[in-house]
């Protein structure tokens, strides 16, 4: 009986870890919300490691093909907040190719059932448009049970 209870406790703790990987909610940062969400969802800082955020914030003049430059104080403020809440361990802490969330190994594994044609739908546009399928993405909630893939 004791072995069964231990196995159950381990299984339940794994469920908690899996669920935690789908929730990246942190207290919002006003400047991050204002500046980043003016073009795309203000990605939760826990989706990338600190080194990726440092490069992204350090090159806002070439932000994935767009000049997203901000004044020095705002850049430093947002950068410090992203660094403080960045992914620190596990799969999320691995630096993805080109610092793109959608190129991270964990992202690719989580979305392996989504076809290339689905990503190209006008209602989605690209894997970077989290809120197309994850209605709560702006709040850091990526629970797979709440996913709704638009047609």
UniProtKB/TrEMBL annotation:
What is the residue range of the signal peptide feature?
1-20
Name the domain of life this protein comes from: Bacteria
Q: Does the keyword Signal apply?
A: yes
Q: Which UniProt keywords apply?
A: Signal
Q: What is this protein called?
A: Cytochrome C
Give the source lineage, highest ranks first.
Bacteria, Pseudomonadati, Pseudomonadota, Betaproteobacteria, Burkholderiales
């Amino acid at each position: 009986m004791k072995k069964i209870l231990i196995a159950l406790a381990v299984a339940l703790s794994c469920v908690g870890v899996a669920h935690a990987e789908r929730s990246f909610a942190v207290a919002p940062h006003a400047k991050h919300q204002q500046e980043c969400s003016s073009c795309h969802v203000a990605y939760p800082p826990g989706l990338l490691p600190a080194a990726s955020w440092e490069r992204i914030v350090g090159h806002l003049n070439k932000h994935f093909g767009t000049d997203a430059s901000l004044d020095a104080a705002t850049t430093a403020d947002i950068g410090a907040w992203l660094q403080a809440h960045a992914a620190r361990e596990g799969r999320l802490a691995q630096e993805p190719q080109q610092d793109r969330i959608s190129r991270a190994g964990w992202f690719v594994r989580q979305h392996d059932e989504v076809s290339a044609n689905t990503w190209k739908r006008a209602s989605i546009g690209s894997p970077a448009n989290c809120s197309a399928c994850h209605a709560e993405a702006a709040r850091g909630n990526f629970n797979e049970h709440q996913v709704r893939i638009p047609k």
